[in-house]
Amino acid sequence: MPSKESASPLPRDAASVQPDGILRLNDWLPYQCSVITNRVSGMLARMYSEELGIGVVEWRVLANLVAFSPMSATELSESTAMDKVSITRALNLLVTKKLVSRRVDAKDRRKVVLRLTKTGADAYERVMPLARAIEQELTSALTPQELKTVQAAMQVLVARANATLDDTRDWRELAPANALPAATAV
Questions:
Q1: How far apart are the C-alpha atoms of 2 and 6, rounded to whole Å?
Q2: Is-contact 119 99, C-beta < 8 A?
Q3: Contacts of 153 (CB under 8 A, 6+ apart)
Q4: Which long-range contacts (CB under 8 A, 24 or more apart) does 69-72 make?
Q5: Portion of the chain with pLDDT greater than 90, in percent
Q6: How far is CA 46 from CA 79, 92, 131, 138, 163, in A?
Q7: What is the rounded distance in angstroms from the CA atom of residue 73 to the CA atom of residue 112?
Q8: Cis omega before residue 70 (within 30°)?
Q9: Residue 7: pLDDT over 60
Q10: CA atoms within 13 A on the CB side of 5
């Protein structure tokens, strides 16, 4: 990978945009990431839906609680980049299934602390062999050096997305002045 000093942003007319301005989705990095995410999530979702009766959002909550427990619902929302309503619905199901415990924080009674239960940890361990196998299947086409490069690049992109594309930023800050036609009255 080039150093930060030598790296320059892609030109506006990068390979993902055709000469007529039409976005070439298969060359656009966010689309590529989305396709991979959807394929991986779909495969995993079929398993944990059948085996555990949970969906994608619930799985992401479980995985985050394994990595970062204890957490609040707000922290989960920030960590997963998912809206609070989706997190709340997922938590309600996970608590009902006894996969997650929800307790008032003894130090700050305004805060609710979320933790994985033993049943939740067992559920996570049931899914992990498939998750690892999917990652192995996906990355088997890469050399070890290519994999290291992709992982390093993804860490940079995730950090950049977290720092610059959060919910508090107005999309108009990124849109070029001439990107949108003037609004017309309906």
A1: 6
A2: yes
A3: 1
A4: 69/114, 69/115, 69/116, 70/113, 70/114, 70/115, 71/113, 71/114, 72/111, 72/112, 72/113, 72/114
A5: 65
A6: 24, 21, 12, 17, 32
A7: 8
A8: yes
A9: no
A10: 0
